[in-house]
Amino acid sequence: MLDPLIICFGLGVGVLIGLTGIGGGSLMTPLLVLFAGVQPVVAIGTDLAYGAITKTLGGWRHLRKGTVDVGVSKWLAVGSVPGSLLGVLIVDRLHDAYGSGFDTKLLAGIAIALFVVAASILARALFMPRLVERERETVELTARVRAGAAGIGFVLGLLVGGTSVGSGALIGLALILVFRLTPHRVVGTDVFHAALLLWTAGLAHWATGNVDLTLMANILIGSLPGVWIGTALINRVPAAALRPILGCVLLGSGLGVLSKAGAGIPAWLIVAAPVAVGLAAAGVHRVRTPPPEAVPA
């Protein structure tokens, strides 16, 4: 059965994935929980399963554009694939042990992951301009780099397998801070690696019965054309302009999920906090950006 709301969610998130590499689990899971009333563990499993297909399309498109560092992606996957399997196993065992009572704790975990992702995106967009001077197109795969990539992949894979949050934002942050890739290479490598990671986690959740295939089909109807549009626009739309907005949206999503977990957060704060952060971010950007007449010819 077609659900226009879910299809629209898929389209919007797909465009963001194609443009920035961010927005899959970080947005879709809270959307499914808050607006579609999906059980948290099913929202996570379905999100990861649809994300595997969506990011495979995006990764293939980025690979053809030459914006993927295959070596870094491979070594991240060496750690993230077993990490994601462990994350799925932990969530499944806890859900079996505590039943529906585990949903509240899982929602709290998702909210915390959303806050971490929102903070990382905002920090990356607003307070890391000097990293531009150190950016590079490719990474020399020394033994230390390979070990570091596998270790980072394992930790973030564990988080993604358990909550579906972070496959884009946190891996993207690592690609900037640790591997110092240029923005387009960050997005391409991020999406390509996420496809490898999400196939593993998504199939594991499907095997444990946490994937709603009808819901996944509705998401894919919107997300596949969305990611195609997003990757086509990547050289025309500055992804840096989208990141502060996305960070504020994720902050609001985290507050909403935490409220659903029983935290008693008032509705006005769920709206006011992201707006306040957005205004502060706009102020920081304005102060940091020189006026047009000050820019050298």
Describe this protein's structure.
With 297 residues, this protein is an all-alpha fold. The chain has one domain. The protein is built from eleven helices and no strands. α1 packs parallel to α9 and α2 packs parallel to α10.
Topology, pairings included?
Blueprint: H1 4-20, H2 24-35, H3 40-65, H4 70-98, H5 102-127, H6 143-163, H7 169-177, H8 183-207, H9 213-233, H10 239-263, H11 267-288
Helix pairs in contact: 1-2, 1-9, 2-3, 2-10, 3-8, 3-9, 4-6, 4-8, 5-10, 7-8, 10-11
Shape: globular
- Poorly predicted tracts of residues: none
Helix count equals 11
The number of E-state strands comes to: 0
Structural class based on helices, strands and sheet pairing: mainly alpha
Question: Main β-sheet, in a few words?
Answer: none
